[in-house]
Amino acid sequence: MLSSARKIIIKTSKNLKLPQKFIYSLLKPNKIIEFDIALNNNKKYKAFRIQHNNLLGPYKGGIRFHQNVTRQEVQALSTLMTIKNSVSGIPYGGAKGGIQVDPKSLSKKELEELSRKYVKGLINYIGPKIDIPAPDVNTNPIIISWMVKEYVKAKSEKVKGKITKKELSYLRASFTGKNIDEGGSFGRESATGRGGVIVLKYILKNIIKHLNISKDFTIAIQGFGNVGYFFAEIARDNGFKIVAVSDSKSAILKLDPKSKTTDFKKDVSCLLGLDVPVVLSCKREKGQLAGCYCVGGVCDIKGGREITNNEMLQLPVDILVPAALENVINRQNMSKIKAKIIIEMANGPVTEEAYEYLTKKGVIIIPDVLANSGGVSTSYLEWVQNLKNEKWSEKKVNDKLKVILEKATDKIYKRAKKNNISLKQATFEVALLRLYKEWSRISSKSQISSYK
After folding, report:
1. CB-based contacts of 228: which residues, under 8 Å, 6+ apart?
2. CA separation for the pair 404, 400 (Å, rounded)
3. Which pLDDT score, from 0 to 100, does residue 210 have?
4. Given the DSSP bridges, would you call strands 94-100 and 131-135 parallel, antiparallel or unpaired?
5. Which burial class, exposed, middle or buried, applies to 114 when counting CB atoms under 10 A from its CB (0-12, 13-18, 19+)?
6. Would residue 103 be called left, alpha or beta, if left means φ above 0 and alpha means ψ between -120 and 50 degrees?
7. Is 239 helix (H, G, I), strand (E, B) or coil?
8. Alpha carbon distance 228, 283 (integer Å)
9. CA–CA separation, 22 and 37 (whole Å)
10. Does residue 336 have an active-site annotation?
């Protein structure tokens, strides 16, 4: 992953004829923080926080708890956060954090201890105007709450007397993804999925005349976690037809009894649109999607079909949404992909080889650093609310998110169209040019100062 991130930065920078010094500055992180956390159970866990680049503002990126977390992975993800935040146009740099741990192996008490000690190890490196962590893989508002409390406790001890509500709100701005009653923002839970739909709709509005797509856009979504679910629900509410969804075990779809054909592998018009909220309720009850063939508020097995995840990726839908794992579209299945548009809601779901192959075939791929940037964009809005000691309505947050993402998408789409390049190439060019502009300004200022 790190090698891939570096390669695309080097390739894009060279195409833009950007200086070697600037390229080098993006390949090496500003700071690598690595330490061990010892719990009272006498076990040690490797912890990381990598602050990649802060040209555009405070470092920003999530914290993941996973047994396979490595320094290399965290560095790659911090690099991509720099790109993603630049793409979004928000005033953040890029960072990422992680602890090498299986959180399921810890008790709740141990998990809280781990979370709090992670903050203690970073207390001098994070803050509202320095580095603002957030949830990521296997972390959530509860874990972030422990971290915020530890941070507030440490900073409050340095201040005599009780801190004011305004001061507390400011300190809470050191993290995003918090619970609503602890300074979190309305709209944050659905933000990544909602952002994906906003970007997709904006792209479709501009390219629909050039694509042979039916009026009822059909969508298949791999992954039915937070991102996949909210993408499905919001897309359905916006008139899209969700014909297939999947979890880690399998994918489900449902045949229309009135259809003249049943060969959904060739024609998905024979499939009914799934009732997404009811499917979710069924999944929670059963523990899996299998059997949750829910349409029009009713779940029954009549007409229901269970297929593999790989079979779902090969359905002839208008839009394919990989929202779970990386590298799921690759050399083995790329020639069988029939979707006209792929929107990368997971991180890196399309390998570089598959991307090149599908792009040449005319498939439009909306890259992850744009498609799934709704989460970090709403984190920015949460941060702003904390700094101002304000609380906005969910509608206001969603309206502001729409403005941020439509502005970013418009800039990328226009560059892609003007230069006849892919959306992915245009995305990285826009991100790097914004970074280069700031790098040039700072470099020029430094040179002027050195002459004085």
Report:
1. 193, 221, 222, 245, 321, 323, 324, 345
2. 6
3. 63
4. unpaired
5. buried
6. alpha
7. coil
8. 13
9. 35
10. no
Strand partners, 271: 255
- Collapse the DSSP code of 64 into the 3-class scheme (helix H, G, I; strand E, B; otherwise coil) and give the result: strand
Integer Cα distance of 82 and 86 in angstroms:
6
Domains by residue range for the chain, with CATH: 32-182 (3.40.50.10860), 191-371 (3.40.50.720), 394-451 (no CATH)
CB 385 within 8 A of CB 182: no
Q: What is the DSSP string of 326-356?
A: TT-BSTTTGGG---SEEE--SSS-B-HHHHH
CA-based nearest residue to 221, from 305, 140, 313: 313
CA distances from 176 to 142, 222, 248 (A): 12, 27, 28
Nearest-CA neighbor of 273 among 201, 355, 217, 333?
217
What does the angle CA 50 – CA 53 – CA 54 come to, to the nearest 5 degrees? Answer: 115
> Token digits for 389?
């000691």
Six token digits for residue 7:
């390669």
Which tokens go with 343? 């929107």
Helices and strands counted in the chain (H then E): 15, 14
Residue type, 425: Q
Torsion sign over Cα 206, 211, 212, 213:
negative
Cα separation, 56 vs 78, in Å, equals: 14
The active-site residue, picked from 14, 21, 31, 96, is: 96
Q: Residue 193: which of 239, 232, 236, 247 has the closest Cα?
A: 232
Is the separation of the CB atoms in 49 and 33 below 8 Å? yes
Residue 65 structure tokens = 């708890």
Give me the residues paired with residue 244 across strands.
220
Question: Tokens at residue 25, please?
Answer: 């500055």
Q: Return averaged pLDDT per consecutive 10 residues of the chain, 452 residues in all.
A: 82 93 94 97 95 97 95 94 96 98 96 98 97 94 96 83 89 96 95 97 82 77 95 96 95 94 93 96 94 94 95 97 94 97 94 95 95 96 98 98 97 96 95 96 66 42
Distance of CA 409 to the CA centre of its chain: 15
Q: Which of 307, 318, 309, 235 is nearest to 276 (CA)?
A: 235
Could you identify the residue written with the tokens 């039916």?
214
Q: Residues 223, 246: contact at Cβ < 8 Å?
A: yes
Distance of CA 323 to the CA centre of its chain: 9
The residue type of 263 is: D
Sheet holding 251-254, edge to edge: 304-307, 251-254, 241-246, 218-222, 319-322, 341-343, 364-366
Do the beta carbons of residue 407 and residue 89 sit within 8 Å?
Answer: yes
Length of the chain: 452
Based on C-alpha coordinates, what's the Rg of the chain?
23
